[in-house]
Amino acid sequence: MKTCTCLVLLLGITLFISGCTSPPKDLPDFVVNSSGIVTLSCPEYSVDESMLLISGNSTLSRLTFSSGNDRFYALMGTPAHPAGGLVMSPGAGVKKESHGDRARWYADQGYALLVLDVRGNGGETPGHPLDPESDFTAFGEGKVPQYYQSVCDMIQARKYLSQRFGVPVLHMGDSNGGRYAAVAAATDPDSAGYIGISTSGFGRLGEEYTGDARTFLLSIDPEVYVPLISPRPVVIFHSEKDPVIPLSEGEALFSAANGPKEFVLFNGTHGIDGEVDAAIGSRMLTFMRARHEGL
After folding, report:
1. What's this model's pTM, rounded to 2 decimal places?
2. d(Cα 263, Cα 227) in Å, to the nearest integer?
3. Tens of pLDDT along 158-208?
């Protein structure tokens, strides 16, 4: 990895994810093929890390990712020497701070957890809530849909964790965040796999349209992408009592995936909880072993 000079700042650590030979740009470049699969060329981001809390061998940090005039933010919990990592995209309207205790818990288990401040979720990162209609308007005008930016945010965060600690990193998300995470895991060949919680695809809705509408709707649909994650593992958690996204929709996303895959019922309602955390923690060594073995 190439690095720039003056990496250490007074209040944080700055790391260039992909080097510093090109001027920073604000937005991804993208190409969508006839099947609706997007190929993204994401901007290079520098990362400033400010420590918020040190507890034993674990730390909680606030991250600022910067490229040109663009910024997005994250919260990260990590032990001194993580065995692996996860990048998490929370559900709609959920701020990164809501997962501070969760980030510390994963750090205590020996894993880094980076929680994104999703664009439009009401936190520090500006943007609008998930809005396919608005994004389709941008797509039709040749502009970058925010959905693609959110996927790039996950990919850049994964690169940061991988390069910072030299460990395999999974993409994870719940509810709307699980949709971004599925696309990120499929389009990021260095992702260690995908964990979706209380989430779904869009039922390949794009197939009901033609032209740009078909192409765009398929390009944001996790059901289009989840088969491409194989042979990396896919684990989907869903509750029979989910009042937001029906169990059948989670099962449809799971059915679209290729192996290795696992569908796990949990006793909650909607979104990640302690039961899901414990189940993920018990599987982390398996995830890491699979990645080290070249899956």
Report:
1. 0.90
2. 15
3. 999 999 999 999 999 999 999 999 999 999 999 999 999 999 999 999 999
Burial of 185 (0-12, 13-18, 19+ CB in 10 A): buried
CATH number belonging to domain 81-292: 3.40.50.1820
289/66 Cα distance (integer angstroms): 33
What is the per-residue DSSP string for 229-294? GTTS-EEEEEETT-SSS-HHHHHHHHHHSPSSEEEEEESSSSS--HHHHHHHHHHHHHHHHHHHTT
For 219, counting Cβ atoms within 10 Å of its Cβ (0-12 exposed, 13-18 middle, 19+ buried), the class is: buried
Written as six digits, the tokens of 240 are 């029979």
- Spatial separation of the C-alpha atoms in residues 290 and 84, rounded to whole Å: 12
What digits encode the pLDDT tens for the residues 16-34? 333 444 445 689 999 999 9
Please count the other Cβ atoms lying within 10 Å of the Cβ belonging to residue 14: 16
Cα–Cα distance between 134 and 245 in angstroms, integer? Answer: 22
Residue 236, judged by CB atoms within 10 A of its CB (0-12, 13-18, 19+), counts as buried
Report the alpha-carbon distance of residue 54 to residue 88 in Å, rounded. Answer: 21
Domain boundaries, the chain: 81-292
